[in-house]
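The data layer described in this paper is built around a simple, fixed record for each protein. Such a record has a labelled line for the sequence and another for the backbone structure tokens. For reference, a complete record is included directly beneath this paragraph.
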Amino acid sequence: MQTLNALDSTLRSYLNPEQTNHVKRAYFFAEQAHFGQVRRSGEDYVTHPLAVAGILADMHMDHQSLMAAMLHDVIEDTGIPKSAIGKQFGPTVAELVDGVSKLTQMEFETLEEKQAENFQKMALAMARDIRVILVKLADRLHNMRTLGVLQSAKARRIARETLDIYAPIAMRLGMNSVRMEFEDLGFNALYPMRARRIDAALRNARGHRKELVDKIRNQIESTLEQEGHEVEVVGREKHLYSIYKKMKSKRKSFSEIMDIYAFRIIVDSVDTCYRVLGCIHSLYKPVPGEFKDYIAIPKANGYQSLHTVLMGMHGVPIEIQIRTREMEAMANNGIAAHWLYKSDGQSANGSHARARQWVQGLLEMQQRAGNSLEFIEHVKIDLFPDEIYVFTPKGRILELPRGATAVDFAYAVHTDVGNSCVACRINRRLAPLSEPLQSGETVEIITAPGASPNPSWFNYAVTAKARTNIRHFLKHQTREDSVALGRRLLERALGVFDSGLDKVAEQRLADYLQRHHYDELDDLLDQIARGNRLPAITAQQLLGELDSDPAQTNDQASPVAIRGTEGFMVSYARCCHPIPGDPIEGYLSSEKGVVVHRERCKNLADMREKSERLVALRWDDEVVGEYAVELRIEVENRRGVIAVIATRINSMGVNIEKISTDDKDYQFTYVDLELMAHNRVHLANIMKRLRAISSVRKVTRIKN
């Protein structure tokens, strides 16, 4: 157990006496504040903040972080306000403590929502001071070490949250030793039996492997010594959770995973890293495609190292990592090493800058996310990158998660580039936006003014930034569409009574909005467009004409013109596929807005019982866009006839969405097509060209 004397000894090794005294003063303040409080284990509560400070001291964190660690539960558990901490220890420490404190004063409907809100608050505090997350990680690490005293259900919940959120954050910040301890402690709490079995197998395998491990290490050391390199060679053991994850994801047995021998070579300089690599490759044969240079191109969390895989004696695969001592410290402590190496540190400052960049990305995501649950889902996506590195046309390197597409690349360059993206070139060839990118490719984004994100991008965008921005844009666009359509529907309904929105008294409108709990008129119009409020009834309520029957007045109004630019609030029925030129009628569907049907659609006949939801529609004089339509073509059974039809349609610049065949008899076949047409005239031209094909017997439009 951490004691104040032991902590004092650690602090004096790297802090000056004044800073050490500040930390001890924070300890005595916390001891008084938590007086009488005990942990579930029966120990005095102050042992927890003391242990958290000890974890940070082992990372050589600055004195303000250690003071915040001592005080991190004071606001939450003792009732002492933030202002009192600020008065005693300064505003910086008070902000750090407040950032780590949970949201205890708010009520949440679900535990998930509470966790998400807490994390969101912490992310905002991180944006102000990155040390907040380091204190939080140390706090969580000590809680995980003492998880055994909790009830099993609560312990499993905390372990799951740690594996889902805190272990990936530690990895993202380059704090590898913290991440590995999180994973092993979480694994033990969630799956105790599996952890025990793997641990026993690992101990057993360690005994069998010892001789070969020593032999390989001695060979490496003697080879490098002959070349005049002073190095440290250490065997690298896989930890329990990584073995379990590999067994599960790669469907490999324990023995297959343990067949690989791993070593780390620690050297004095970057130059020596590459020299040692050459020596190692001359000692054993390297496996092609397995070399990775993370020194030239560091990972997003600042991690730097050379990785290579060799084929050793008797065909034994050997994984080698080569790095400097500073890189080793950075790999283990990540961003925390920024404070340890800040005097020398280019690599440390680089890590700190990357971490700040990531936190700024979190802040941007938080501002665009609809709620805290949506935000935390995006964060989870962002925390599991298996990186690829791609180039812009000007040679700038961008890091993206594996599976990322040109859409993710576009948003990584800039939000406006993503929003106006229409096509891409990968290594100078035109490629679909959905094509997964590979490391080393050069990607060029083609943009167009007025272009906008497509909802289908959700199917292949993987980065949190891309998905957040697409969702934000579509939400905003949907709102604009729905308000505009709602206004037209309400104006039409008011027109029945020879009125309009401009003729409704301002006070009457304000009273109506207040009575129905709308903040502004746009909220009401939005609900009308979504089909959640009926325009005819709303119009009567606004005008006080509730005696008249909306069903009778509905037909008297002039039809609403459909332009084809209404976006998501107007959809076209899949049952009858209306296109411009068809007589049409609309049905107000809840949350879907206006669904356009052809006037003689069978499904519309069934809806006439709810006549208050029917809307008279007509096509605008200037309709834009393409509309799906279905054709049935009766053709002779000849080889290649479908290719002829497809070629003829393609020559007219028409897109085929779907195609299927159904045999009528031995002589004729039905070909069903769904294609995109501008209007009835365009469709008539398409049908005329199809009838001109010699094998085609009949072309008809499918009506229902």
In short: The chain has five domains: 4-190, 201-340, 400-461, 471-618, 627-701. Residues 656 and 675 are 4 Å apart (CA to CA). The radius of gyration is 33 Å.
